[in-house]
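Final report, section 2: Outcomes. Of the targets proposed, Membrane protein insertase YidC is the one most frequently requested by collaborating groups, and we therefore present its record in full.
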Amino acid sequence: MSFFSAFADLVDGLGDVLEPVAGTASTAAAIVLFTAFVRLLVLPLSRAAARGQKARTRLQPQVAALRKKYKKNPERLQKATLELYAAEKVSPFSGILPSLCQLPAFFLMYHLFASAEIGGAPNTLLGHSLFAAPLGDRWKDALADGGMFGAHGQVYLALFAVVVAVAVYNYRRTKRQLAASAALTAGDTEAMPGMGAMNKIAPLMSFMTLFTVGFVPLAAALYVVTSTLWTAVERTVLYREEPAGVAVAA
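The predicted structure is given below as tokens.
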């Protein structure tokens, strides 16, 4: 039995367990539960990223001072900044680790519902659906089957609505944090080399999830939406004691 076959059996079996509660949406519920399990496994990394971000917030005045000192020498500024973080045992990129560690789970879910066969046998998971939408279909299939407001399309509209709501929340929260960060460093938005460009696109990143949901199989889209919602709640909890300058690198 291949790895993918074993995982397909796991999802199928979990769906059978959830069927008395979730009915015909039991496999979709199994995907949501699997996503929550993955996020629980990654939680220690998320907590470490939060601690690292708090340390970076604490170091912002020192970084701003380095920038002022070496404003005419970008290479020396970058070196001095990295040396400061190294001395304090802080990684400026630790915030990306939780996302990177989730990629294998996402691609596993994608492969599972994008393949007609698993282990040389027909992929029976493709016969499952979330209400009217097959888990192996994509948004273009929903548009071809009844249009945007058809039974199939309404499932995607609900997912898009959740993503937009979370994205708007993240946008407002990130803008507030960036403003607080700029105030902490006397308006120096380039306190860390290259951070100015990141500050411009950071508030918009959550909206990119819409493109992912629209182009991957519905099962993978469920994983993405569940993980996105989890991330919003998780960051609200983990960063609740840090009102200023938090979440840019996260």
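The longest helix spans residues 26-69.
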